[in-house]
Description:
By secondary structure, the chain is an alpha+beta fold. The chain has helices spanning 5-8, 89-113, 138-152, 165-168; strands at residues 3-4, 14-23, 27-30, 32-33, 47-51, 54-64, 67-72, 82-87, 116-122, 127-132, 158-164, 187-193, 197-200, 215-222, 227-234. Helices cover 20% and strands 40% of the residues. The protein is elongated.
Amino acid sequence: MTKALFLIDSYLKESPATVLSMKNGKYVTLDQTIFYPRGGGQPHDMGKIIKGDEVFNVVYVGKFSGEISHEVDHAGLQVGDNVYCVLNWERRYKLMRSHTAAHVLAALLNKGTGALITGNQLGEDHVRFDFSLEKFDRVLLESYLAKANELFGTDVPVKWYELSREEAMKIPGVVKMAAAFPPDLPALRIVEIVGVDRQADGGTHVRNLKEVGKVELVKTENKGKNNRRIYFKLN
Ligand SMILES: [Zn+2]
């Protein structure tokens, strides 16, 4: 079983690891990893796995049957190899910032309008956000973005820790995704933006809202009766 280092410290950019298994010469599992596997609306990480002088580019990371699998661009890694992993940090850090921004926006919208998030997809350039809301206009939305931007300029810590499932489920709004339910585990990972939001969540986030910067609305769409879609981006 791979130890998911990104859940403990999302700022780890490099780490040693040992190859646990290989499939078809290019699907690698490791004893521990800094690479986030695609999931929960957050894209997979990219980067490289280095063995001696040889560099294997990590082109995809996914979770299959509970195991984190890294796809590399060519064959050559073997079970038992001691390797060194390096993240494409620029990409990851942008995703951490936009992921954290998405939490704040979801929390403000949920608190102010009762809207539930029905889907979200983080991208390197923009974030897509779907939510259910009957009354909707751009002016209202801009006001929520303005509120969020105010928060992004201030010193607000973001923490992550585990809580027992029982305790976690007592937090109001701990699950803001419509139709989502936390994994069936005895302990849940909670991401807390102090004074703003607490979510059960397995993604990577920045440590302080000051790191987010500013966000900007790109466009809005109506996707049916109560379904709204917005795109925003980091500035
Ligand atoms: Zn998150």
